[in-house]
Structure formats: structure tokens, C-alpha cells
């Protein structure tokens, strides 16, 4: 997921999303098998499922602590959720490729190809396509996983999506998922976790998606709601590598750019 993917983007960026698809047999089969098993094994605490609208476009805006978050949210959500994943997960050959393709399809992933281009905007356009199909889309406003457990400042792409499509935003607070699959681990550990779905936010009162001020204020409202659910310490900065070189750091302070 970027804000839509769990890893920071580099020069190899998202350029072309697959066509948005409705959930099919593999998804419902996978969900029907995996969700009950996950609840039985991990014994998660779920709150606020009644806050998720049953129909219409919905953006799940969540904090991001672990790779496993992209599996937890679809399995614990009361409705089908789609998110973005690398297209290589869907194009492998042989038995391994089949397993990868089946698994990511079963949890609602939509493949995106990588290459040079406007990564963030094309990823957002893919999310827009999902929402315009009256579906639910999950996004991490922080942009990438928090390695220190703090909640970082939100990027405004989530607000652009909400204000452009008219979708409501359901804030999601994840607690404890970093203990299931810490950074660098290859196998999940059995640990309890919490998923809290907050009350849906109608952000239309902030103004047009073309307004930077509206996007910033709407994003700050979303992050405040996530913070209320997760209880994390606030970082008050963006979760990204610092600008390289003295001139880049100075320019970033004097002319702060909008993160999408």
C-alpha cells in the first residue's frame, strides 16, 4: 500500500495499475478460510466494526507497524477491502507463482507495475479507481512502516482521494502487529493484536481537493482520529529518509513540500 505500499518508494516506482476488479471466488474462498483461522490462532481484539459502512466507497486509513498489517486489515474488516501490491506478486510462474498469486488475490490485493514515473500519483489514481467502483480501499497515510512505533505525520494523498471521490474515511488503529512480524523476520509469531475501526469521517467540509490547505487540514483530522485509536507517541515529522546534503536539508526547511 502507498501511503499505498508498505515499503518506501525509490527510483523504481509505480507506473501502471492493473484494472480494478470486483472480488471473485478466490477472494471469498480465501477470506472464508483465513479469517476464522486468524481469529482462532491470534485471538485479536476487534472494536468498532459497526462503524464501517456496509455499502459505498470507503477509505480505510490506518497506522502502519508491520508488513502483516496488509493482511490483518482485509481479514478483520467486515467488508471486502482492496490495497495495492507489487505486480510481481501476481506474475510469477510455476507452483510458487501460483501460491503467491492465489494468496494476494485472496486478501484483496491489486497489482501495480514498477518503473520510472510519478509513483505517488499513479498509485493514488489506482485507489481512485477502486473507490469509484463503490469499493473499499486501504491506505497508510504515513507512507511506510513506523520502525520506532511512533505515529508520523500523514501525507495528503489520503485527503486527495477522499475529497476527489466523496468517499468517507474510516480511521483504523492497529496495536501489537509489530510483535507478530517484526522488521526483518520471515515468519509470523503468534501474538495478540488489536484492530480498532473508528467512526467514519466526512471530510467534504474542508473544501476542494485542489486546495492544499483543505488537503492538509483533512489529513490532520484523519491522523488525529488514528492517534485516538492507536495511542501512539506522535513523531510530528514525516516518516522518510532525511534529505541528502546540506543544501537539500536547507531547501526542505525553507520551502517545505507537500508529501503525497
From TrEMBL:
It is an enzyme of class 2 (transferase). GO terms for biological process: phosphatidic acid biosynthetic process. GO terms for cellular component: plasma membrane. Its EC number is 2.3.1.51. CDD domains: LPLAT_AGPAT-like (cd07989). Residues 58-177 form the Phospholipid/glycerol acyltransferase domain. One of its GO terms (molecular function) is 1-acylglycerol-3-phosphate O-acyltransferase activity. Keywords: Acyltransferase, Membrane, Transferase, Transmembrane, Transmembrane helix. InterPro entries: Plipid/glycerol_acylTrfase. The chain crosses the membrane at residues 24-42, 158-177. This is 1-acyl-sn-glycerol-3-phosphate acyltransferase.
